[in-house]
Amino acid sequence: MGSLSLPLSNPEEDEQEKNLTKARLNQSHLLNLFKCQQKYLNHFFQNLDLTQTLAFTQTLLNAKGTIFFSGVGKSGFVAQKISQTLVSLGIKSGFLSPVDALHGDIGILSAEDLLVLFSKSGNSEELVKLVPCAKAKGVYLISVTSVTPNGLMRLCDLNVHLPLERELCPFDLAPVTSTAIQMVFGDTVAIALMGARNLSKDEYAANHPAGRIGKSLIFKVKDLMKKEKELPLCSEQDLIMDQLVELTSKGCGCLLVIDDENHLLGTFTDGDLRRTLKASGEGIFKLTVGEMCNRNPRTITPDAMAVEAMQKMESPPSPVQFLPVISDDNVLIGIVTLHGLVSAGL
């Protein structure tokens, strides 16, 4: 039988693995990097031209059409993110790839639109080529750059300079500080637009219906409560032992004690059942729900926010698993449970 030959070792791979094994993070070096980045960001804040920034923000606020953003590489990612932030605030916005624009996508632009070009150098070939094509469609052009002078500044209608001391990269090449200040600039302007447009919580929530933010701002107690046949109801004259099925079958962990006019008189929980059984023994067979129920339970109204119900359940002196939902005149309407709130994504 022939012998199996062992794979030959690759000296270059062995050396790389050896270097990786030796690699260690230096705590003081890491701390120094964060301090340097803070210094570079402070340079941006201290030298930003607020007159330019105000003109830029006002132009976006006055936009009649869509605010398009464009950029190449890392600046392109920032442009996309800022555009998405504006969309989430209800502002018509979109990202236009400069490469795709030159191959047909420029057809989305109209004379009422704005085109904001993010570029550190302001000389990106793709953006410089895009400018005259966008101008031919009557689009208002804005450059946001950090290196001056540059090609975009000479071609655009409005220019914003983002002061950049240098990149954190030891070679001053990798775009890390420049993209950080682009993001800070864009997001801050977005919040300024949010304030200028008087965007309400309800309007903001309407744009985030599936997320936890939206749910906490949209859902009210009446949207998530159990009602009618789902409610574990009983009267105060009912014997506790006669209501065990009602107590356990509705999945609420309690009984809602009401009078003939549906006013809430109190609650009786499965915890109350255990405590009563321990204290009374066989005497529990003669006790009514009214004798042992909590006459002062926490309650909530149907128009209260669902997140308020969760906070009320978790408040001192001890958390509870449900809240009866009542009207202003103490008529029982429903019940909201902690399990129901959590299941809804709150």
Automatic annotation (TrEMBL):
InterPro entries: CBS_dom, CBS_dom_sf, KdsD/KpsF-type, SIS_dom, SIS_dom_sf, SIS_Kpsf. One of its GO terms (biological process) is carbohydrate derivative metabolic process. Residues 56-199 form the SIS domain. CDD domains: CBS_pair_SIS_assoc, SIS_Kpsf. Pfam families: CBS, SIS. Residues 225-287, 293-346 form the CBS domain. Keywords: CBS domain, Repeat. The record marks 74, 126, 167, 208 as: Catalytically relevant. The keyword Repeat applies. Transmembrane segments: none annotated. SMART domains: CBS. PROSITE patterns: CBS (PS51371), SIS (PS51464). GO terms for molecular function: carbohydrate derivative binding; isomerase activity. Belongs to the SIS family. GutQ/KpsF subfamily. This is Arabinose 5-phosphate isomerase. The lineage of its organism: Eukaryota, Viridiplantae, Streptophyta, Embryophyta, Tracheophyta.
